[in-house]
TrEMBL record:
One family name in Pfam for this protein: ADH_N
Native species: Phycicoccus avicenniae
CDD domains: QOR1
Protein name in UniProt: NADPH:quinone oxidoreductase family protein
Organism ancestry: Bacteria, Bacillati, Actinomycetota, Actinomycetes, Micrococcales
SMART domains: PKS_ER
SUPFAM superfamilies: GroES-like (SSF50129), NAD(P)-binding Rossmann-fold domains (SSF51735)
Domain Enoyl reductase (ER): 11-327
GO molecular function terms attached to this record: oxidoreductase activity; zinc ion binding
InterPro entries noted in UniProt: ADH-like_C, ADH-like_N, ER, GroES-like_sf, NAD(P)-bd_dom_sf, Quin_OxRdtase/zeta-crystal_CS, Zn-ADH-like_protein
């Protein structure tokens, strides 16, 4: 089969090579899938650079989530698990990730694909939407009528947070960079959109909330974006730290959190797969229901052929994409 390999660490465009590689074999409790679609995620960028907390041995194939058709079952996959021919979504088992014609999945993180979504959309429902669901509901306890501030609102993680926030009955303010991304955020359902290139989101949030501030901040950027968010967080507000796409891991000023009475909540979604797998399955079921109702639908802005994957991952790294960029087998 063909697949992308990272044999040395660096910028995705420099280190990804499309090669002929052996077909994978499922281990115990695993399945092999024919890849139907794989979206690019920021962890794929970080793994290419060697900057992610998960560091697979070289060489490896990136692509941390996938929609695929089951073609082989490993030992111990029983009648309650996936069957050959099933269309499934979930996480991949590195080093045999999703940017290839075949990938490996653990049964524990393999779920039925939602019928309401096509392959590219279904592949994008797992990490970004599960992260949003746990961040907004489990960590921040977002309530109907509250104000939700979403940073990087036109990206894969932010776009999911907009839709999930609206589904929860929140008023959503999205922060983006540039007019094209602003239009995407409006299309996704954001009530107010801030172009950070021309507007100060702190002042906009204060004006839109009568000086109260945002009840929940969803921050996948970090650094100065986080620090500025503390200037417009409401009394008893919650800042959900999702990631550091801006490149700086900030040091929270805990004295400021004390005097303003807000919470800083870390979110490592991957831990839930180990610590509370039943909750991950409940989350998936809820997301499938929301997709069937037409409330959430991942925005896939680009559907790439296998040969275009390295360029797509690099453009994600450069911040030049909106929504999700996905490899699709029939593109």
């Amino acid at each position: 089969m063909r697949g992308w390999l990272v044999s040395e660490l660096g910028a995705p465009r420099d280190v990804l090579t499309l090669a002929d590689v052996p077909d994978p074999t499922p281990g115990p409790g695993q399945v092999v899938v024919r890849v139907l679609a794989t979206p690019a995620n920021f962890p794929d960028v970080l793994m290419c650079r060697g900057e992610y907390q998960v560091k697979p041995d070289l060489p490896f194939t990136p692509g941390v989530e996938v929609c695929g058709e089951v073609v082989a079952l490993g030992e111990g996959v029983g009648p309650d698990g996936p069957a050959v021919g099933d269309r499934v979504v979930g996480g991949t088992v590195l080093p045999r990730g999703g940017f290839a014609e075949l990938a490996v999945m653990d049964v524990a993180s393999t779920f039925p694909a939602p019928d309401a979504l096509d392959d590219a959309q279904a592949s994008s429902l797992f990490i970004g939407y599960q992260t949003g669901w746990f961040g907004l509901h489990r960590r921040a306890a977002l309530r109907e009528g509250e104000t939700l501030l979403v940073h990087a609102a036109a990206g894969g993680v932010g776009s999911a947070a907009i839709q999930l926030g609206k589904a929860a009955g929140a008023r959503v303010i999205g922060v983006v960079g540039g007019p094209a991304k602003a239009e995407v955020a409006r299309t996704l359902g954001a009530d107010v959109v801030v172009d950070r290139h021309t507007e100060d989101f702190v002042e906009v949030v204060k004006a839109e909330t009568g000086g109260r501030g945002a009840d929940v901040v969803y921050d996948p950027v970090g650094g100065e974006t986080y620090r500025r968010s503390t200037k417009c967080i409401a009394f008893e507000g919650r800042i959900v730290v999702v990631g550091f796409a801006g490149g700086e891991i900030q040091a929270p000023a805990l004295g400021h959190a004390l005097v303003k009475n807000y919470s800083v909540l870390g979110l490592h979604w991957g831990l839930y797969q180990r610590m509370d797998p039943a909750a991950v399955r409940r989350c998936h079921d809820d997301l499938v229901r929301l997709a069937a109702e037409g409330v959430v639908a991942p925005l896939v802005s680009e559907r790439l052929a296998l040969t275009a994957v390295a360029d797509g991952i690099q453009r994600l790294a450069d911040g030049d994409t909106v929504g999700r960029v996905a490899y699709v087998a029939d593109a």
